[in-house]
Queue: 2 jobs
Job 1
Amino acid sequence: MTKEQLLEKLTAIVKPYVQNEEGFKNLNEETDFINDLEINSANLVDIILDVEDEFDIEIDNDSMENMLTVKATIQIIQNKMNA
Amino acid sequence: MNRVVITGLGVVAPNGVGLQEFTDAIQKGKSGITFHQELKEKGFSCCIGGIPKISEEKIAQYLTPLQLRGFNSTSILYGCISGVDAWKDAGFSVDENSILDYDAGIIFGTGTSGIEKFRESIYKIDDNKVRRLGSTSVVQTMASGISAYLGGILGVGNQITTNSSACTTGTEALLLGFERIKTGKAKRMLVGSSSDSSLYSWGGFDAMRVMTYKHNESPEKGSRPMSASASGFVPGSGAAALVLESLESALERKATIYAEVLGGNINSGGQRNGGSLTAPNAEAVQRCIKDALVDAKISADKIDAINGHLTATSKDALEIRNWTIALNRKGENFPLINSLKSQIGHCLAASGAIESVATVLQIKDQLVFPNINCDDIHPEISELIHKDKIPQKLIKKEINFLAKASFGFGDVNACVIFKKYLDN
């Protein structure tokens, strides 16, 4: 799976949780879920569950704590998929 | 002490969702009781119940797609619909950017906010998937889920809480909100209660054999308060909400005033003198009604009509007896009395709120809605009060003072006195 394909899938996953549409329009690798998209921090665990379902991976607690930006999330997904 | 008036109503009932549909239904005596295959398949003795009908489109008007992700609580759904409706009915806007109102609060009762969600969570945990609960389990299973959802939707900053006192819950919520405004701690309180549509909520009552099993073929005839052929209650579900407001605030806003809350009382029989976890102490019930009149500063002869608790169990005659003693009125001198449960079943934690809305609508429209399914009045009841006091069809009448009572497991009682609002 290319990084572009991965980003496309991740964008679809976060969409329902986004509270800042402007930030969502400008979504890129540097986007921060809480600061740029104003996603409720409680919903971060839901995004992780959706990511697990979409990519058929399991994300451990340590990785979860780092999944705050698009870049870090893509990195973690790639690592898990290649593991 | 502030006078307290009612300026908004919202209701989600088995026989009508929304104020207009509900008003039409109760005036016609429309039953909201239907047969439920799911209950039959699970081996319930009572396979009938009252469940409000709500379309997906309607739900989408009240909850956002995000709120609906992993959503599985009818109690919160009904509570939110009735609460938002009541708030708008009172003339307030529902706007996520509204200014936080520290003078407005919420007391929204329930038995349990989301038993279906709770079940879902338990199955996941037992399957070693606790992390799969996500973020939705806690907020949908905490008892205060309904008031928490509503607090955010309305943006109110006074006390936001949940009460729970079995089938007294809704009437208790109303009186708690009343006290808060009366003593000046809030200017506006959204009060109400909700009860979910779930066989997991109803199962225990079926097991206690307090629900009727004789009307699975004739659901609309099943709920028979005050009838000689009453054979247990029919479970119902739904929610209702009322906006209570200080008279000063209501006049300032030029709000429509449905009625005044004149006073009330909440007490318990302490499970003594015949009272138990499941049965009422008659003396305490009588005292609750008498103390409500004292609190409202009116005499018993002023009461024009009563909306009873009257569930269609063997306790109906005892309740009527308690009213006759508390009011010292019987026979032809007894006020008109009705039970909304004949139309919608026993909505448990929601009953007090839904029935209070129905009671207030009687003041608004100056009428008494009909009882259904009691053309055969129980002989122990007809010995106490004249049969004409139990209307079988709608009666147009001047209604100035109305009493509404609810009683619940745990031997708890609540009685509220409503009055037609007059500007003097």
Job 2
Amino acid sequence: MGFPPEIILEAVLNGLLTGAVYGLVALGLTLVYGVLHIINFAHGALLTAAMYAAYVARASFGVDPYVAALPLAALFFGVGYLVQRLVIGPASRGKDENILLVTLGLSIIIENLMLAVFRSDTRSIDVPYAMEVIEFGPALLSYPRVIGFGATILVGIALFVLMRFTATGKAIRAVAKERTGAALVGIDVAHIYAVTFGIGTACLAISAALLLPSFYVSPRVGNAFVLVAFTIVVLGGMGSVVGALVGGLVIGVVESLSGLYLGESLGQIGIFLIFILVLLVRPTGLFGARA
Amino acid sequence: MTGRDLLPIAAFALIAACVPLFVTSNVVLNFLVFTLIIALAAQGWNLLGGYGGQYSFGHAAFFGTGAYLTAILQVRFGMNAYPAFAAGIALAALVGLAIGFMAFRSGLRGSYFALVTLAFAEVFRVLANASEVTGGAAGILIRLRADPLNFQFAERGTFLWVAAALVTLALVATLALERSRLGAQLVAVRENEAAAQALGVDVLAVKLRAIVLSAGMTGAAGGLYAQYFLYLDAQIAYGTWISVEALLAPIVGGAGTVFGPVLGAVILHGLAEATKTIAGRIPGIDLVVFGIVLILVVRFPPRDIPGLLKRWRR
Amino acid sequence: MTGTGADPAFLAVRGITKRFGGLIAVNDATLDVAEGSITGLIGPNGAGKTTLFAVVAGFETPTSGLVMLEGEDITGRRPHHLARMGLARTFQIVQPFAGLSVRENIAVGAFLRESRRAAALAVAEEVAARVGLTDQLDKPAAALTVAGRKRLEVARALATRPKLLLLDEVLAGLNPSEVRDIVPVVRAIRDSGVTVLMIEHVMQAVMNLCERVHVLAQGRIICSGTPAEVVAAPQVIEAYLGHGAAARLQGGAHA
């Protein structure tokens, strides 16, 4: 294969950087699965909504996405909390198929509301640093991606601290492990579910802010990420936080390399095939224990 | 099956057959044909999802395969439309068998089955978008030669008859399945796999038969779509829209019932038209309504509505 | 105990061991069931009875050992295959097809031998009469009482026309009068030519019904014999009541 090693190295490094943000997208998904035991099909659509929010912040109010990241995270925590509390929770009535359908319904609604408001145009924002690069040995790395990588690590650490050392984190872990027991000792399970969903959605808002400078947004952009995120989650093991981050890096590299060798349009195939293979061969993922 | 069981289906066929005699508006006929195509695709989903409880999120894989093969055999190989249509159905069924074999053998159920079917459909979409035989991103056009010998009809009303006939056939097939051993075993698998096994049901074989029938029927809808619109691209044939349509109609109209998919397709597309009339041509607004209806139907299952009303009146 | 090979027993379980990770649920269990008999399998909670049933019925593959039906090795065969060979089971935790009527539930079993719906429904009615469910045929299965669900479990299994019926605690959770009603049903099943192996805690019914009883404790068969012999055996009393209990009771059976 006729690529010089620098090009391959650069592809791998850029893949790792993008993969970190994928990992952050997947983190929200895996967290929700780990605690609520539901697969949230609305994850991609919520990401789209967050990206539009970051877009509007920049295009209408001139706020840099990196500045908007934290306020957006707070806003989307609220959105996620309410969606779980008011829509998914009551409608699911504990049945797996119902959750599947309700989150699918949510994704249809969000996606098409975006289409109705913003039309199908592809939009991107104009920030001065979008095209800047950082030299890293022989490779040139895109500045927004390096920021994204760093921010993902920060969010990962923050989540770790939250889960390990705060009362809410302990309650979340208790609910994840043993819902009935947690309820018996007085934990409000519905509240914890909603908080977890909120945290997952807040992760999306940060991902959106990190993605926007180097990516575009359209009403269906979430679809591009949602299967990638599912692949990462399945690869890393449903519910495994470490698995999501490592899986993100792996998928980032796979995508980058298959894009290099197969071209942009077929590049996605690699990810889907990994997804299908993992589901068929080892649905518990590389880091997961639960079937 | 007795004559009395077939009566509602005969009534449906009769009403559908009379429509072209009274309706001449092309817009209305277009709407009806499209709704019938969706109903056929949805009936396919219903066999596996409604009766078998295996929720596919990727019936586009079968719809698109039926559609593309029907078109490709005519355009690239000069085959007549009817054998091309039949081949499309057969290949869709085969794709169903392959996907089903891989997924069910690995024991994928519930959300995992939904995910893997979705992924397969996406793989097909990406491939169709990049491959030459499908016309790639430009799509594929079937030449207009309005002649019944080409499975093309000068009058939309005639096509409505054809679509209605196929839906009628699908209704009869579904009723036959419901009354058969396979149907009973399929429902048993949906309700409780372990208990079904204990009663001698070969769960894998039953699921495979169901997905083959399901894929073939949805593939037929795809072939019909190709013959009616005479144009396909990857987003039309393998896009998530058709997976969602195929699933939504039975869920709304009643999954695991003979008339559920037809009823659901009519309700949903009736609502979509009404919304467009009221709200104007805002893109996506009809789908927003679909999403809301889906959540409402899950939240308040229609079979519970009489009970809810009673409670409310008290 | 007889050796392996050409085994005269109708159902022969030979040295079955089943491990789940580090836990040994069944440990080298060997037992016979004679054709046309009602045989009991008793033992304290957690003894491994249900696991042993699951192995015999093909729901679990044993770690080692053999299961033979009429001299044929059936170890590790899939449940639906065994059902076709004439081995049916009920579940301790009843597993009705909740969305279906009683009639449709039983018909699923009947479809194993009947390919036509009308025939399967006819078998369902006939079987329902045998277990006393005729009045409930058109009820949704979810609406049945506990006793009704237990009858439904038996009816569905019977509808597959088994040679050997494994009953897993069909009397558990029933009140004394309901137990009294089902005992003759089980006996009538045997009288119609079906061999029965039953896990049971209700000793009154075991004493009443079973010709032979095997006692499983901590995964091992610790005693086999007639009901009277088994309840008098010191190792059985100790298994139920703890070490030293036999001496204190001086052989008095108590259950």
